[in-house]
Design goal:
- The chain has 1 helix and 14 strands; from the N terminus they run αββββββββββββββ.
- It is mainly β.
- The chain has a single domain, classed as Beta Barrel (Porin), CATH 2.40.160.
- A 14-stranded antiparallel β-barrel has the order 1-2-3-4-5-6-7-8-9-10-11-12-13-14.
- The chain is globular, with a radius of gyration of 17 Å.
Length: 213
């Protein structure tokens, strides 16, 4: 179970969690999130120039362990090339490279994720929006052929407020579901939600994000 849950975390880091990097404006952000194990803090910056946007972020967990990630996206002619790296508390690094292309109905993505030991997983995704609701599905296939799939639905109001529901399904059919929301006023956002694991165990989380120009 640990491996596919880790894959889900990396998938989040390199896909939907980094989607905002395509917005063509510079900014910094910071905040905190509180869950069952305590409070984590995070901070980052994003800059865009010449069609390329780069986002760097760090997070410190309740026990003091630090994680860092850098992602980059360059777009031209309806296709974006993406890359990134993630370094965990022990110094192990995971890298990712891929592409995102527009389609008549939305977008498609594909690429590879390479772990600290050199083993490689592949991912494929697709999604689209109708009105203010967007749906996304991404599948990661590991070195041994096992798959992890995530399906996400997000509904926003164009003002930074949104609700999101997500289901991650592991190789054995076990699922992790999450329901969350975000409310923004000016440069300050609050968020929270509930995560339910394969055994039905539930955890809640909440936090804040502050953005600066």
């Amino acid at each position: 179970m640990t491996n596919w849950r880790t894959s889900a975390a990396v998938l989040c880091l390199f896909t939907a969690c980094a989607a905002g990097a395509a917005e063509a404006r510079d900014r910094s952000f910071s905040g905190s999130v509180t869950g069952p194990r305590g409070t984590s803090t995070f901070a980052g910056t994003r800059s865009c120039s010449g069609g390329t946007c780069t986002t760097s972020r760090t997070a410190t967990g309740p026990a003091g362990g630090t994680r860092s990630a850098t992602t980059s996206r360059s777009c031209a002619g309806g296709t974006c090339t993406t890359s990134g790296s993630y370094t965990g508390p022990a110094g192990n690094t995971t890298t990712r490279a891929g592409t995102v292309a527009r389609t008549p109905d939305g977008w498609q993505s594909q690429g590879t994720v390479t772990g600290p030991g050199g083993r490689t997983a592949t991912y494929q995704g697709q999604g689209g929006c109708t009105g203010t609701t967007c749906n996304r599905q991404t599948t990661v296939t590991g070195p041994s052929g096992q798959t992890v799939t995530r399906q996400t639905t997000t509904t926003g109001d164009g003002q930074g407020n949104r609700t999101r529901s997500s289901t991650v399904t592991g190789p054995g059919g076990g699922t992790i579901t999450s329901e969350g929301n975000r409310t923004c006023t000016g440069g300050n956002c609050t968020f929270g939600g509930t995560v339910t694991g394969p055994a039905g165990n539930t955890a809640t989380y909440g936090g804040t994000v502050t953005r600066t120009p």
